[in-house]
Amino acid sequence: MLDMPLLLFDLDNTLLPRDAAFRAWAQDFLSEHDLPPGDLDWFVTLDGGGYVPRSTVLSAVRRRYGLDGSTEFLLAHYRRGINSHIHCPPRHMEALRAARAAGWTLGIVSNGGTRPQLEKIRRTGLGPMVDGWVISEEADCVKPDPLIFEIAAQRCGIAPTGEWAAHTWMVGDHAPADIAGAELAGLRSVWLHHGRPWAESGYRPTLKAAGLPEAVGQVLAARNAPSPRPGIRAGGWGRRQAAGVPVRETALLSARSGARG
Length: 261
Hints:
6-stranded parallel sheet; 6 strands; Rossmann fold
């Protein structure tokens, strides 16, 4: 068994309450522009949990309200505004400290733009709490591709060879990216359900949790549990299966998620 097992986390709506920050920004935006407060639901629907490109969201906002200024100007306003509302809850920090004290190596695996995601990590104080991170834009690799988890392991100081996957967990809220990715990479996983039912039929998380502290507690308790059956994996570091890719892997990889912001 690895001396330092690896625990990987998604960033938005896992470590950080990203959707709450978006709602706070939207409320500020409506107030600042003297727009109807009731339009908040329209903003939230358009946002799509961060998976709709920011240029699409802000172009729609600009057209709806006939706002002056370019979409690029609104994007800069958005980045400043949402970052002012981003925070890492104290109970999440406590969970990370507990995992560290229990001997775990910690990492972040995030889909999204490099600049905004790095700003979140730095602004919230997550940087010193983890051993490494990978962001899809700079890595040119998007969850659920198994390679992004291998990159994360290497950046955390763990060679993604041998039995590394059997001693690695992934915690995340977005099934097609986080849980499917863990399945493809042969990792165990905890899905943060946030009150939602599980809706996928081709794969399942190892465990489910209502929030991050519960998820970390489950992982720590399960450390000595038997390893899962090998998942559908892409081989060692930097390798791809040359042929015979299973239909199930093809289907899951086709479920690539858009970038959050």
